[in-house]
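Supplementary Text 2. Reproducibility record for the structural model of the 276-residue chain.

All settings were left at their defaults, and a single model was retained for analysis rather than an ensemble. We include the record here because the model underlies the residue-level annotations in Supplementary Table 4.
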Amino acid sequence: MSTRIKSIAGLIVVLSAATVAAQQTQVKQTQQPAEPTGYQDTPMQPNGKWHIHDGTRPQPPIVKPGPFAALPTPADAIILLGPGNDLSKWQMQDGGGPVTSWPIADGVLSSGKGFIRTKEDDFTDYQLHVEFATPSQVKGNSQSRGNSGVFLNGVFEIQVLDSYNNITYPDGQASAMYGQYPPMVNASRPPGEWQTYDIFFTSPRFKDGTLEKPAVVTVLHNGALVHNARAFFGPTAHKLNPPYAASNAKGPIGLQDHGNPVRFRNIWIRPLKDGD
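Retained model, structure tokens:
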């Protein structure tokens, strides 16, 4: 082989190596950092069993839900989000203005900038139906993937998350009582598919400003029971254990903006009265 050919061959090897190195550098630069899947430096939950968002807590077993079946709206339900584009029952949480930053089309509301909540803010005991879908295109991991939330009385969150093949701290996965209890099972559908929450909520009871009975919730996720008359420790929060306040006795329904394009549709509520 001539000296010239050897020089050209050597140059090609050097250029190829440089190209590969540049590509690897680019991949490292564009690769999303992994989100935390748990914490051990957070306060203990009030029952003293686990840290808030404890990553060592057992993951709920996976249960494949049955086919999606739309639940007919009862005649006495208040329709919060129907088949049209009416957002008159909603307002921005901050400032109370009209919802203009959450796009809606044909009854499908896409999460936008800022939390939203119902204008009615005196719900107490109720049955709540919510349909949602996390993004079809999977981006992120743990809590950065399809994250939103349904807030009961404005302060008790049932987590919305893409928990299909996505590990996160158990008390923050889909249908968790956020920061408090994981669901009994992971009944999540794949990304992009419509899912349902059917929530039965009893507000906390106070006497002279003192808590008598905690808030209690029963939740079905895609038809599977995931919470059975479980009591909240108090309002839900990230890495915190907020105490009950008398103002928690009633409140609005809220939907969370967490920077992920989660879709919602067919939301209705039935205020419940004691059978006695």
